[in-house]
Amino acid sequence: MALAAVALVGCKTEGGDDPQTEDMPEWYYTGGKLGTTTNTSSMAFRQSTPATDNAGMGRAFAQGDNIAEKDFVTNASGRQHGLGPVYVRASCQHCHPNYSHGTSVPEGTYDAAHQGNGTLLVVINPTTQAYVPWLAGMPQLFGAEPFKAPVNPDMISVSWKTATDEHGNHFPDGETYELRYPEVKMPKEAVYVYNQGYRDPDGLLETEGYEVKLENTIGVYGTGLLDAITDEDIIAQYAKEEADGKLKNGLNPAIYAGGMVQTGYYKNDAQWGPKRFTYALSRGPLQDAAGANAIWNITNVTRSDRRYHYLDLNGGIYAEYASKDPEVQEGFADYIAKIDPNKEHPEWHTDNMEANVKEFLLSKSLPAEMSDDEFTQVMIWHRGLAVPAARNVKDEKVLRGKELFSQIGCDYCHRPTWTTGPDQVRDPNGFFKQGDLPTYPNQKIWPYTDMVQHKLCMENDIRTGWCRTTPLWGRGLHKKATGDAYEARMHDTRARNVIEAIMWHGYSNQSDAYYPTQQFYNLPKEDRDAIVAFINAI
C-alpha cells in the first residue's frame, strides 16, 4: 500500500489537481488506491495499476501490452504468428485505440481495417433476436490465403438516420440537440457461404431478412477491478432493484428472476456466479471473458486451452463450403505445409483435398500458436490496466454536477461506487490461479455502473433491447486518447457527446431511464452543463 501511494502521487493531472499538495476526495481515486493512475494524458488508459507494480508484474505487464498493441500476422512461425485462417481484426488496438472504446463510425462504407473501428457487426434473426447460424457471433471480416472472409466488409455500408423525441430535440430554453442512429446494409452477396451455394433453412439469407446492428467495444481498462466485486454484492444489487420496482421493464428474466439465473453461455455455468461482462452479460469471470476470449476469437490465434478455430455459430457451415471451394483447395497444400511441415496431422495431408480442408478447419487439436507465457502476459496486462483518476474534483461546476447527477436519479443505474471483496482469481478453464495475476482486495472503486441490464427502448436498439449499464469511469478522456472527432458514446457510437447520450436515455417513455432524463431536460442550462462537466470528469 505504501508503494501504491508513492505511485499515485508521482505526477500532476492535467485537470489541475495535484495529489502531492492537495487532500483529494475519495472519489478522485476511481479505481481505489490499488487501481488508479494519475496519468490523464492521451496515454491514460495504458497505465499499469499500483497493484500490478507492487506484485512485481511490471515487466510481464509491458510484454502483454506489446502483444496487445502489435498486429498478429498470418505467418506460421515467428512473433505473433497464427492470424487466421479467418479473423475479425488483427490486434487489440484495432478495436480499442489506446485501449479506449472504439471510435465513432463515419457515414459510408464500413471500414473494418481502420484502426480504431471498434464496432463489431451483429447479424441476427429479427424474430428471435438470436445470432444467425451461418456466421460467428462476431462475424469475421478477413481471411488468410487461400481462405476467404466469411463477410466482405467492402460491401457493407453504414448510414446515419435522425430521430426526433417528444420535445422536438430542443430544451425549454431553446438549446437544441440532435439524435442519430445507424442503419447497416449487408447484401447477401457479401456472405461467403451464400456465394458458395449455401441456403439458409429459415430463408433469412436468401431474402435478406436478417438484421445487422453495430456494437462498439468499451474501454478495456479497469476490468480487473470489476472482476473483484463479489458475486454476493452483485446478486444483492439485483435483489434490491427487484424489490424497489422502479424500473419500467423490470429485470431480464434470463439473468435474474427471484434468484440468479445463468444464461448458459460457454463454460460459465452456475458455479461461477453472475455474469458481469459484455452488453449481453454473457461473460464472467474475467479469466474466461472479455480479453481472455477476444485474444483468441478476434484473431483466431490458438493457445493450449483453445486449440480450435472460431468459425460460425453452427460450427460447421463455413468449413463445409470452404472445403468445396476450388480456389481454397488449390492453395491449401502450400498453406498446410507451413502450418504442419512435419505432417504430425496426417488427416490434413491426404489425397482428398476437400476432406483435408474440412478436417483442418474443424480440428480440436490444432497446434498452440500463442504460448502459455504469452497468454499469461496478456492477462496480466488486461487485469492490470489502471483507471485514470477523476479530474477537476474540486471545481465548483463539477461538484454541482455531481450533486445533480444524484438528485435527478442517474445514480440509480449508474451506481457510483462498489467495494471489492478479497478478489480470489477464478478461472473456469483452470489456467490461472491465485498469485498469477494482479488483484484488488477491499478497494472502494467508482465505476458508475450497477452491473445490471436495463432497457432504453431506443430507435434501432441493441440486440434484445437489454444492455448492461456501461461504466462511466474514464469515458471523458476518449477523444484525448484516440483523436476521435466525437465522444462515441452508447453501444453503437450513436451519441456524439454527453447531451445526446442522456437524451437517448429518455427517447421513449418506456425507457427505464425516462424519468431521470425528463428531470435533466427540465434543468436550466447551467445545471445541465454542470452534469456534463461531472460526467466528463469521472
Verbal overview:
The strands form 6 sheets. The protein has a 3-stranded antiparallel sheet. Strands 1-9 form a two-stranded parallel ribbon. The protein has helices at 2-8, 32-35, 50-54, 58-69, 92-95, 192-195, 204-207, 223-227, 231-244, 290-297, 317-322, 326-339, 353-361, 372-383, 396-407, 478-482, 498-505, 514-521, 525-537, and strands at 36-37, 86-87, 108-109, 119-124, 142-143, 157-163, 179-185, 211-216, 387-388, 418-419, 444-445, 453-455, 466-468. The relative contact order is 0.17. The protein has 538 residues and is α+β, with helices and mostly antiparallel strands. Helix 15 crosses helix 19. It is built from 19 helices and 13 strands. 29% of the residues lie in helices and 9% in strands.
What share of the residues lie within helices? 25-40%
Can you tell me the overall shape?
globular
Described by strand count, sense and barrel closure, the largest sheet is: 3 strands, antiparallel
Question: What is the β-strand count?
Answer: 13
Total helical segments: 19
- Roughly how many Å is the radius of gyration? 24 Å
